[in-house]
Amino acid sequence: MENAAFYENWMSCLRDDAKLKHIAIPGSHNAGTYQMIPFAKCQGGSLYEQYRHGVRFFDTRFHIGINGKVVFEHGIMGGTPLEEGLRDIRRMIENNDSEFFIFDLHFPKEEYLIGKLGRHYRRDFGVVNELLEKYIEPQQYALTDFRNIADVTMDDIRKSGKRVLLNWDDDGIIGAVNAPLFAPWRPDYYGMHIDGFFEKTLTFFDEVPENALFCYFTQRTPGIGTEEGLKNPITLEKAVRKNFHRLTDTIANDPVLLEKANIIAGDFMTDSHAKSNRILSLNLKKGVVKPECEDLFYKMVQV
Fold first, then answer.
1. Sequence spans of domains, the chain
2. Those residues with Cβ within 8 angstroms of residue 62's Cβ, 6 or more apart along the chain or in another chain
3. pLDDT tens per residue across span 11-40
4. Domain 3-301 grouped into CATH 3.20.20.60
């Protein structure tokens, strides 16, 4: 298997009995920001490029812009049309039948920059659902028929023929479900220098509910009054990338952290395969890789 093919099909290497909750999955924070201005940009490549770098969890935020189009967003900033991202998702689905994609959807009524300074948006579920039906076909491809997301296995997914989980904590979006997802974020922790950031955010592993997926965000976030202050995401990413091996080694060498490790998401996932390799390598220690695939998996993600 060539390198590109591996990153596009790595879930084919997972055991049937591997639970979604127990798989180490690379994720992208603010997945749709790849064409935004530097201060709002958290990814450097499109959703399809992120997929080709191993990403299977997409933090997906959008609103309806002043021109009436649904666009990806980061706070009050708007970016690429959602339709472009949905076309990418369709390409992912059609590229193979082995991969499963999780989209954590955010469709706000309003966004605030500072205090009450912000913008209000109208929610038009009809426009969003029309796009979803055109590109994703939720009735065919969205996983909705499960009792507890923490019990869903790769075998369940494979037998169902479903390809996406559209996670949304409200009504209105076709094919979406409110699957428990623990994705903690504290501005004081995420604005710390790198050593304190790792130390503090790893305490989130102590709080993971048994019945939920767990998304551990590894990007630092600019903020007034934090240790790092106001810096753009690419600047903050440099220290994370330089020290990412320390973080994944800590997880790999701690049985409790390793067991709870699930979705590990971050910024600029297409800059190289390095972060995805580190995350995917945890699956070998977690024992969720098919025995016949272990040598291939190790060769592709060796770190």
1. 3-301
2. 32, 70, 71, 72, 73, 82, 105, 106, 107, 128
3. 999 999 999 999 999 999 999 999 999 999
4. no
